[in-house]
Specification:
Rossmann fold; alpha+beta; 4 domains; Phosphorylase Kinase, domain 1; 16% strand; disordered C terminus; 5-stranded parallel β-sheet; 19 strands
Amino acid sequence: MRILMLGNSFTSANNLPQLIAKRTGAEVVAHTRGGARLREHLNPNTKMGAKTLAALKEEPWDFVILQEMSNGPITSKESFRDSAGDLCDLIWSIGAKPVFYATWAYQKDCAKLVKLGLSYDEMYEQMHESYYEAAKENKALIADVGTAFYENSSDTPIYADDGCHPSAVGSEIAADVISEIIRNNYRQLAANDGDEFCPRCDANLTLQKGYRNDLPYWVCKGCGEMLINPRVETDNEVAWICDQCEALLNEQDGFSENCDSWKCTECGFVNRIDTSMIYLSEAEYQMSLSNPYKGMTDEDVIELMSYEEISNLDERENVVLVKMDGKNYVKKILSTYNESVYRYLICHPIAHMPQISKVYRGDRYLVIIEEYIEGSSLSEYLKKGIFKPTEAVHIVRNLCCILNELHTLECPIIHRDIKPSNVMLTKSGEVVLLDMNVAKWYDSEEKEDTRLLGTKDYAAPEQVGYGMKASSNKTDIYAVGILLNVMLTGKFPKEKPAQGKLWNVIERCISLDANSRYRADELIERLDNYLGENTNAGKKDR
């Protein structure tokens, strides 16, 4: 099954296309631009329009999902109606089925909602009516995400900080609604053609690349479950699975069990072919995938085993206090990481960050041994109450000094996960920055992040796919602004903004436009000015 999504940042946010792909087992392609209207996809003189028209005319699609600019079905109703009609005519003509992704009303009290001059209920009703009219006129399907938001708005954090875009939770809800519509309608159509479906996730197996109903086994691309074909007898009783992407190696041209290793043609990962690695069941195989030492050399495993494990830190199974030669260290088992960043930090330590001692790489995990620093995270302090303004500013200023060092390296590093649990205060008051798990090198030529990572409420818009920009040093400043607001009020800015001059600082930090945010050195200077105006203690250097 192939799905084309036409929309804007409501479609790209939080990687919604990939969420739908996982739920349906389909190949999902998205043509999006922040603020785009449907009519842009019909204009051959625009880059996106030319791309969309070529895709519709030259490629096969089962469903085409249409999403108008956020308030377009209300403020530009006739344009929406005309564009929807023209697109649906084109979609029907190529044998695909149009689906309207009906979006939602802005969050209550959102500035954009106030500007529209509508109440929350009024915007919901008008959006609902406009999308349903378009679906009825064009005999299209409708994925009513707007109603799902309306029903969950009182008790679920479905909105991003701006009150318009979906949060990660909101995008999960959207994916559920859209995927259910797709699955129900596709199965109804495909069942008559003899298509086969996964018994676990209901994905259409027949349309998954490489699938044949005479294969002895198949790994469903929808849920990852290995399915054994009871009707097929085969001399080859072992299914060899790529340790990186879980593709079935047996079906790759030239593969043989007699070779010592095999380079997966799907992802390029070199797999060891060893009969001692055969698993008798899917459960046993899945258990092996969670083994962090799998793929390491015997020497590395023995070296890691020589560390005495003391206890888990912060009740996290993958972060362990260990001891070697009477000295304490922290052992971290990472499934998300940039190995080159950690190896760089071994030889180029950053002041006021834990020194990286060792890096061990397995097939799927990276194991880090780093310096143990005793102290308490800002999360622990915030459980006891908020900070006084000057205390919060001192801490954030010193945090910015660490970030400034990272951001001004010859090849800058972006932390990408600034939050209370990753900032520590030692007993002496030193500020320490932790966890480089999702850090990346800054590349000024990069247009967007290849992996959307970060922590909800602290992640900048560009980290969750909004704005068509890649993460930069300004990404960390966004999170610093959120952190400062939380330290001052105990709440996120959308819930309770700070007051006075510090709110002016925070507001610039969390600007949706990354170019408008401070650099780390500029923010240090601004915070120093605040301290000079509001304390007799003077500057507090690290």
